[in-house]
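User: I'm writing a tutorial on reading structure tokens. Could you give me a worked example: one chain, its sequence, then its tokens, then a sentence or two explaining what the tokens reveal?
Assistant: Sure. Here is the example chain.
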Amino acid sequence: MGIAVYDYVLCEIYRVRGCFIEWDESTAFDVAEYFDLKESQVIETINYCCAVGLFNKELLASGSILTSASIQKRFIEMSMRAKRKEIIIPEVCKIPEETPKVPEKTAIIPEELPKIPEETNKVKKSRVKNNPPLPPLGGSESEKTWKNDFEVYKAGLRNAFRDVREDADWLKQQERLNPNIDILLSIEKACVNYWSTEGAWKKKKKEKIESINWKSTFGNAIGLNKVYKQQNDNQNEQKPQVFDI
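And here are its predicted structure tokens:
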């Protein structure tokens, strides 16, 4: 599982920033949720990657940045192949004395390319015209899903909270795993402060999932949003209403 976590983080680096990623509780939470792991396992894996040189441990310790000289070198090589005009390694992730330098001159591309035989170069126009356009991600334009509509996402979040509020067995299990913690209030805190925001929605959209496992998300969120029970709490009080978001 360690190599899977490393590959996931590496893909996020190349996909979003190109040469680094900001490592914080939110990012660790996303990785843990994707693989259904504990956050402590994910953090331990990242620390091991730093120890063996896969990531720069100094930048992680000083600036919560995950990168390495090899990652930045590959970023520069890919940018050159894409013929980008400006290739810049941000100051926040520069590695002292290790950051690869961008060459001042790129290789000269010959003006004349080798000729391609006519038979392989021809493309039948009829095939191109008859190819139907690809549908947009998330379904047709008229279909609203949690991936393309923020209100649909929030409605799903509210329904998921109602479901766990009525799931006595799941709540009992969480109380056993999190003694002296108000489970529902901790989940509500996570929803109001984070999961109901557009930032959380955008992060969820980036994941390669068709549906959100809110029960797993809530279980992981309890540890980061602990609300302790008051000494005079009455366990038989009415269940809290669904939050307004």
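What the tokens reveal: The first helix runs from residue 2 to 17. The chain has a mean pLDDT of 81.
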